[in-house]
């Protein structure tokens, strides 16, 4: 049977309306530290007024646009085990789920983390692109496209194995070869599943291939000689490589309700990246290791960000950041942003300040649950202990085109439990924060 899908706007109006809606949301988005509250109040009046104006424009556009009707077959949501290619409906439904903007914005945190790793040869990037294209096509039930992408991956594996193994540290060549063998087997298994029109086994094999690829790329990156941040930041902690951090949140007297599923607690895992933001990541890992965030409440949750880290909001003094034991001044870290293609981060300046506004960031604020460092609105080097999860998921903001890339430090992504953050509210408690791995990657500038 066919079901009518009513769309209030045509494709062109949808894009324009979407842009206005995104701008409206970004205008209302403020991520300064609480120390700049008076400035926030003044700028907030303008921001909210602008948000209302742009929102009204988007609404007006949607009301003016004539409704259109599309007839799409098989509009029931496909089960994971639905076969591919058995009818047009699967592909049509997949296209309906695709980005309404017509652009492909990479919102996969694992993919973004892979792309942020140094020392990766072109052959590895080609393999990654093919495997990720296959995963995207499988998710959208485009079997023919997935099979074509898997064919490209097979070609790279056959022609470039020696080159890829050579990119790994010499004493880890056997490990690299083992990873490639696992990827080869997984790709073969995915192709066989596709030939039998079995989606679930193909997706499982594809996921195994990508997870193994992550391990391979991380192995290659261990050969990178990461430079220390500039000497002007002597005494500051910084992170070499990456660390895995786990947070557990609870709500007093209530359960979390995430899309109808109830949870007594929320466990969230985050990869913190020192390759791209060594000072920001090192500061965060150091604070987690000190137990600074244990018992701290969520201090802001407005649908765009979930923010915490202000000790004054917990009744612990008047300072809005971390003060090291025995000292009287807050430890501040600079704005730390990294233009894609550069060799080192930019410190203390935004992309705009550096004359490169709109350039792509190595770690963009694309993924739901991206980690960002909060700071005062007009002081780029005022970050200390306040940080946020970004809860924004848009097809209209590719890297470098949103209002955060190059203006705030992105220092990692949530890799487990990101969608659970949708029900986190002010007053929820971080009962524990711990560094699962990578704490031994912590260093001190100048030592």
Automatic annotation (TrEMBL):
Source organism: Coccolithus braarudii
Domain PPIase cyclophilin-type: 255-426
Keyword rRNA processing: no
Statement: the UniProt record of this protein carries the keyword Thylakoid: yes
EC number: 5.2.1.8
Superkingdom of the organism of origin: Eukaryota
Keyword annotations from UniProtKB, A to Z: Isomerase, Rotamase, Thylakoid
PROSITE patterns: CSA_PPIASE_2
Enzyme class: isomerase
Coiled-coil intervals, chain numbering: none
GO molecular function, one term: peptidyl-prolyl cis-trans isomerase activity
Pfam families: CYP38_PsbQ-like (PF21329), Pro_isomerase (PF00160)
Identification of the protein by name: peptidylprolyl isomerase
């Amino acid at each position: 049977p066919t079901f009518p899908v009513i769309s209030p706007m045509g494709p062109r109006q949808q894009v324009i309306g979407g842009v206005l809606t995104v701008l409206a949301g970004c205008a209302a988005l403020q991520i300064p530290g609480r120390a700049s509250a008076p400035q926030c109040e003044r700028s907030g009046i303008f921001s909210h007024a602008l948000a209302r104006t742009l929102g009204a424009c988007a609404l007006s556009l949607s009301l003016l646009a004539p409704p259109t009707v599309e007839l799409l077959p098989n509009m029931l949501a496909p089960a994971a085990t639905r076969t591919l290619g058995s009818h047009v409906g699967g592909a049509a439904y997949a296209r309906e789920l695709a980005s309404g903007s017509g652009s492909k914005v990479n919102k996969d945190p694992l993919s973004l983390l892979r792309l942020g790793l140094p020392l990766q040869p072109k052959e590895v990037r080609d393999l990654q692109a093919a495997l990720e294209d296959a995963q995207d096509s499988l998710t959208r039930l485009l079997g023919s496209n997935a099979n074509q992408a898997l064919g490209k991956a097979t070609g790279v594996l056959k022609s470039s194995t020696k080159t890829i193994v050579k990119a790994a540290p010499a004493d880890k060549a056997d490990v690299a070869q083992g990873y490639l063998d696992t990827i080869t087997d997984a790709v073969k298994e995915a192709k066989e599943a596709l030939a039998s029109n079995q989606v679930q086994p193909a997706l499982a094999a594809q996921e195994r291939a990508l997870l193994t690829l992550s391990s391979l790329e991380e192995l290659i990156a261990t050969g990178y000689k990461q430079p220390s941040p500039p000497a002007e930041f002597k005494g500051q902690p910084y992170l070499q490589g990456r660390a895995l951090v786990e947070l557990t949140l609870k709500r007093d007297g209530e359960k979390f309700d995430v899309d109808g599923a109830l949870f007594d607690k929320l466990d969230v895992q985050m990869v913190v990246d020192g390759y791209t933001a060594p000072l920001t990541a090192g500061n965060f890992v150091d604070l987690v290791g000190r137990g600074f965030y244990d018992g701290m409440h969520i201090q802001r949750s407005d649908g765009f960000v979930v923010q915490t880290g202000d000790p004054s909001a917990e009744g612990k003094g008047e300072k809005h950041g971390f003060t090291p034991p025995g000292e009287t001044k807050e430890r501040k870290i600079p704005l730390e942003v990294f233009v894609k293609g550069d060799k080192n981060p930019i410190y203390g300046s935004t992309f705009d300040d550096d004359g490169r506004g709109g350039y792509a960031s190595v770690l963009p604020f694309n993924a739901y649950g991206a980690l960002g460092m909060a700071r005062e609105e007009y002081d780029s080097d005022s970050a200390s202990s306040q940080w946020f999860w970004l809860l924004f998921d848009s097809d209209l903001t590719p890297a470098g085109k949103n209002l955060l890339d190059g203006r705030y430090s992105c220092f990692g992504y949530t890799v487990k439990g990101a969608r659970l953050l949708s029900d986190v509210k002010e007053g929820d408690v971080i009962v524990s924060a711990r560094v699962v791995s990578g704490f031994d990657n912590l260093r001190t500038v100048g030592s």
